[in-house]
Write a structure and sequence with these properties.
This protein is mainly beta. It contains four helices and 15 strands. It has a 14-stranded antiparallel beta barrel with strand order 1-2-3-4-5-6-7-9-10-11-12-13-14-15.
């Protein structure tokens, strides 16, 4: 193991300290959802292809996405993610990459997602991801393969119901003796989104971690103008409110999101989506 210098040890242990704080539920820093879903409480099961692979078939146009989310104003707690989505009548697919941390502690994810519409009201999806952790704390590089499974059901035009299992199953390739939150957390999430009227959408979901802890996530989106949306939401883990906005310009869409933790302060993010 390399010899550590004080200047690098301090930010590394600051990172580990904040990641170990009890926030009610563990956080998957590599798959945080897009900025729209984060602004509405984190309802990724029906709103974000970064979370639910079944959503790939819900779009009619291919897209390129990129986003950055920073927790609590610390550059060491930033997540960068990007993806490409290709809808197709037979089998939709997407490729994604994300990275969390900084040079001395960085976890990365590479993901292939597939989605198939089995019935006009039923869509299923599966994703395969390879994760690795590069850190000066370990001599080895922990690596893992994992699978996500998602299902979407649309009983009527304005209602979408989703189910999602993340990191189930998963297989650790190396570093089996290390407890790594991004690798070991198993999520089950179920929720819905409902277009109440033309310009108002509500969404809510319930999430478990390792089938033990429960968290409610809910939000609302209001579109005062055709190109502009306002969003707000919350999650019950330490009651974290969130808010954000989105602006559509031709094929481009920019989304911003922020959430608030009563002890650690604000987290903020921005995302860009281009459809073609």
């Amino acid at each position: 193991m390399k010899k550590q210098t004080p200047g690098r040890i301090i930010p590394l242990f600051l990172l580990l300290f904040f990641l170990s704080l009890p926030v009610g539920l563990a956080v998957d820093n590599l798959r945080i959802g897009d900025m729209r879903s984060l602004a509405m409480g984190g309802n990724g099961v029906t709103q974000s292809v970064y979370a639910n692979p079944a959503l790939l078939s819900m779009s009619s146009r291919r897209s390129v996405q990129a986003g950055y989310f920073n927790r609590y104003g610390l550059k060491e707690l930033g997540t960068v993610q990007a993806g490409f989505c290709q809808p197709h009548g037979f089998l939709s697919y997407g490729v994604f990459v994300s990275s969390f941390g900084y040079n001395a502690y960085r976890s990365s994810l590479f993901r292939l997602a597939l989605s198939k519409t089995l019935h006009p009201a039923l869509t299923v999806g599966i994703s395969f991801q390879y994760m690795l952790l590069q850190t000066e704390l370990f001599n080895t590089v922990p690596q893992q393969f994992a699978t996500d499974i998602g299902v979407l059901y649309k009983p009527v035009d304005n209602l979408l119901i989703g189910l999602l299992m993340m990191n189930c199953p998963s297989v650790r390739i190396s570093g089996k003796d290390f407890d790594i939150e991004d690798f070991d957390t198993f999520y089950f999430q179920t929720g819905f989104q409902w277009q109440v009227i033309n310009r108002v959408l509500i969404a809510a979901s319930v999430q478990t971690e390792k089938m033990k802890l429960w968290c409610l996530q809910a939000g609302i989106e209001y579109q005062p103008f055709d190109q502009f949306s306002l969003r707000a939401g919350f999650r019950t883990a330490n009651f974290q409110p969130s808010f954000g906005a989105g602006y559509q310009w031709n094929a481009f869409q920019i989304n911003v999101a922020s959430s608030y933790h009563n002890l650690l302060g604000f987290s903020m993010g921005v995302g860009l989506n281009y459809q073609f």
